[in-house]
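Inputs:
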Amino acid sequence: MRLINLKPTRSWRLSLAMLPFALLIVAYLFGSAARLADNPQDKLLPSPVQMADAIKRMAVDEDTRSGKVLLWVDTAASLKRLAMGLAIAALLGLSLGLAAGIVPLFGASLSPLLTIVSMVPPLAILPVLFIVFGLEELSKVMLIVIGITPVIARDIEQRAREIPAELLIKAQTLGANTWTLILRVVLPQLLPRLLIALQLALGSAWLFLIAAEAIASTDGLGYRIFLVRRYLAMDVILPYVAWITLLAWLMDYGLKRLTRLAFPWYEGSRA
Amino acid sequence: MSFITVRNVWQTYGDQVVLEGLRLSVAEGEFCTLVGASGCGKSTFLRMLLGQERPSRGEILLDGQPLPGEPDRSRGIVFQRYTVLPHLSVQDNVALGLELPRAPLAGRLFGAAKRSARAEAARMLERVGLGHALDKYPSQLSGGMQQRLAIAQALIMKPRMLLLDEPFGALDPGIRKDMHTLLLELWQETRLTVFMVTHDLAEGFTLGTRLLVFDKVRHDPQAPNAYGARITYDIPLNTDRRAARAALDALPAHITGGVQAA
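Outputs:
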């Protein structure tokens, strides 16, 4: 059989999915053991025991100075910023994209603007945000909003343009005005797309969150990682990165499930 | 007075002349089938009747008044594709037409009004043979059933004119025949004026009371776009149906009301 015609069975698929992860872990364990055998003080590749110790310190024990369990404080702070940023960006992106994609008069002004604005590197204007919005929560949320809103808006605009003209005409023959046309025909068809756009923007949203926290913050997952970097504390950084990855994956998975649950018509209609 | 009057209508896109000097007068209740080669402007003419396009020259009158320049409730449309809303169930697809005109702000009805709209939609769907599929989504329906749904959706609005743009072009011959029967029955019940674009000449002859053939009369081999199509043949058909219809119209309203309800 040719390679292209060989398809993994269910159990094979699972093992093949595990394989790269297993290889990575094994490689790390060997590397870590080798370095620690050379120099027990080595901080670069901590052993699983050292990491478990660090996790216990961060996630179970109370911090001696603040009396709080740091991992949970950091997680709550980061998730709050992320959720606010995502929610605002989703709302803004949906409104802008929908207006630009469906109402030609609005699109004439909005489309060029969105195209240009989405080219501005958000991190380059981070100082501006700090100057304008201060060093508090607002500037961090704004970085996420500014970073991902243009992407979402442009995606939604595209999807809105892809709605067949026939459907918009049909709705008008059913007695829709512009507002109810948007409300009952366009919006419901774009909501699943919005969830997918959010899913794709999730990676950048985390990037902007960590960047903002690294530069000016007193808590948060990004703040902690950049704080302990000074002590070369890889035993804290690596579990934190793994934890962020897990959170991001869970959000991605949750959005995917939500799309399927909330919009059962969506998958079938694309066929 | 004729229901629809087309007065010297031209449609041009840049240098390209699609339709030239169209003159036509259609009485209420006629079933016009529009045939002709691809690209001869019959769909363009249908889009002008719908209000999706405006003639470059000339005018189309409805009851002596210029035709509204955008699609509205008085004109129903069934396209070949993308004709029903994928995110609404079969029943809601039809009920939407009852909800939208009555709720210009919310776009939906609530409570008893909603229930009665859905019940009316269900009756209409029963009539077109979709009574068993009320809760399905359009993607779960076959092509023929989707077109039934589209017809029900158009008819619930009680339009004065039904426009069909190759509605059965993508269907199997057997299904197409069922659809013809259904369409004729509905036409007889509702006294609608129907315009139907079709590629299938036989379909045009079976269904219509009037067959309009679109064709180019003049050709310039150096400039194929210089001249547009006209209506070259205007053939009255199925005079028995037409006569039955006229006889029905002649009856006093209190009797015909009874006939329609039956």
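Remarks. Residues 84-158 of chain B form one domain. Residues 173 and 179 of chain B are 10 Å apart (CA to CA).
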